[in-house]
Design brief:
This protein is mainly alpha-helical. The chain is about 45% helix and about 5% strand. The chain has helices at about 1-30, 45-60, 60-75, 105-115, 125-135, 170-180, 185-190, 225-235, 255-265, 270-275, 280-290, 290-305; strands at about 200, 210, 215-220, 245. It is found in: Secreted.
Length: about 325
C-alpha cells in the first residue's frame, strides 16, 4: 500500500508540474487554448485521431512519417502547415523535403473535418494533432496540446536548407538550430527520441561508410557498433535509396529503446551518436535510457514546445480550404 501511495504522489506531482508548465506556455501564446474548437468544431480532434489510427493500422510507417512532418513544418516558418503547400518553389518541392510522407493522412483528416465544420480548423492544427496522435498510436504517451494555430500564406523552398537539421550535424550545430527555435538542449535530447519510430533512406547516413574499389561498403565511423554497422552495410549495399528502420530493436513502437540503442553505439545517424559522445548530453541519454516514464513525461513537455514554435495568429495566417494550397 505504501509503495502504491508513493507512486500516486509521484504521478500527481508530475501532472501538476506539467499543468503549470503548459499554463506558462499558454500565457506566452494567449491565442492558443485547450479545446479551442469546443464550440466551433467539437469533433475536430476525434476526426484527426480516428484518421491517424486508421491509417496507422494499415501502414505501420505512418506514425513516423507524421511525426517527421511536424518537425519539418515547425523548423521552417514555424508550425503553420507551410510544408504542405504544393507548387514550384515551395518548401515541399525542396530536395530536403523529398522524403517526407504522411501528406495524404493530413488531407483525409482535413476533408473529414470540412464536412462537419467548413473553413474552421487550420491545417497547422491538424498537422500538430496528427503528430501527437501518431505517437499515441505507436504506444507512446497521451499528450494534450493547445490549438488555435493559423495556416501560413508563404512557403519558399529557399527557407528549407538553412533551417532543417542534417543528419551529420555536430552537437554544437544542433544546439544552435534548436536554440534558434526557442528549444533547449534538453528538448534536443528528448525530441531526438522521435527516432524510436520511423525509417530512413540509406543515403541519410552514408557518410558513416565509404565504398572500396569493388563497390563494397566499409565502415569509417568508429563511433558505430561494428555488428550494427555490418547489418546496415548489408541492407544498403545495393542501393542508397533503400530504407532501414531508425530503431533496429522496436521499430514500430514509441518507447525509450532509442536511448538504449545509443548506449550500445547503435544510433543510426551521426547526430544520434553525437548525443552519447558529448558530456553535455550523455547523462541525459543515460537517464532516459533507464526510465521510460521519465522519457514520456519529458516528451510531453518538449513536444508541446515544439508544436508552438513560430505559430501564427489572426491576419498573419488563415484557415485554408485545402491544405495543399493557400486560399
Amino acid at each position: 500500500m505504501a509503495s502504491t501511495v508513493a507512486s500516486y504522489r509521484i504521478n500527481y506531482t508530475s501532472l501538476v508540474n506539467l499543468l503549470l508548465f503548459l499554463s506558462s506556455l499558454l500565457t506566452a501564446s494567449s491565442d492558443l487554448s485547450f479545446n479551442f474548437y469546443a464550440g466551433s468544431c467539437p469533433v475536430a480532434e476525434f476526426l484527426v485521431r480516428n484518421t491517424v489510427r486508421s491509417a496507422s493500422s494499415s501502414d505501420p510507417t505512418i506514425p513516423g512519417k507524421l511525426l517527421r512532418l511536424l518537425f519539418h513544418d515547425c523548423f521552417v516558418q514555424g508550425c503553420d502547415a507551410s510544408v504542405l503547400i504544393q507548387g514550384n518553389g515551395t518548401e515541399r518541392s525542396d530536395p530536403g523535403n523529398a522524403s517526407l510522407g504522411g501528406f495524404s493522412v493530413i488531407e483525409r483528416a482535413k476533408n473529414a473535418i470540412e464536412v462537419f465544420c467548413p473553413a474552421t480548423v487550420s491545417c497547422a492544427d491538424i498537422v500538430a494533432l496528427a503528430a501527437r496522435d501518431a505517437v499515441e498510436a505507436a504506444g507512446g504517451p497521451v499528450v494534450e496540446i493547445p490549438t488555435g494555430r493559423r495556416d501560413g500564406k508563404v512557403s519558399v523552398a529557399a527557407d528549407v536548407r538553412p533551417n532543417i537539421i542534417d543528419t551529420d550535424f555536430s552537437l554544437d550545430k544542433m544546439i544552435d538550430a534548436f536554440s534558434s527555435k526557442g528549444l533547449s538542449i534538453q528538448d534536443l535530447v528528448v525530441l531526438s527520441g522521435a527516432h524510436t519510430i520511423g525509417a530512413s533512406h540509406c543515403n541519410a547516413f552514408d557518410g558513416r561508410f565509404k565504398r572500396d574499389s569493388k563497390g563494397n561498403l566499409q565502415l569509417i565511423d568508429a563511433s558505430l557498433d561494428n555488428s550494427y554497422a555490418e547489418t546496415l552495410m548489408n541492407q544498403c549495399s545495393s542501393s542508397s535509396s533503400l530504407t532501414v528502420s531508425n530503431d533496429p530493436e522496436t521499430s514500430s513502437r514509441f518507447d525509450n529503446q532509442y536511448y538504449r540503442n545509443l548506449e550500445a553505439h547503435k544510433g543510426l545517424f551521426q547526430t544520434d551518436s553525437a548525443l552519447m559522445e558529448d558530456d553535455r548530453t550523455r547523462k541525459m541519454v543515460e537517464d532516459l535510457a533507464s526510465d521510460e516514464e521519465s522519457f514520456f513525461e519529458r516528451w510531453r513537455e518538449s513536444f508541446v514546445k515544439l508544436s508552438m514554435v513560430g505559430v501564427k495568429f489572426g491576419e498573419d495566417g488563415e484557415v485554408r480550404r485545402s491544405c495543399s494550397s493557400v486560399n
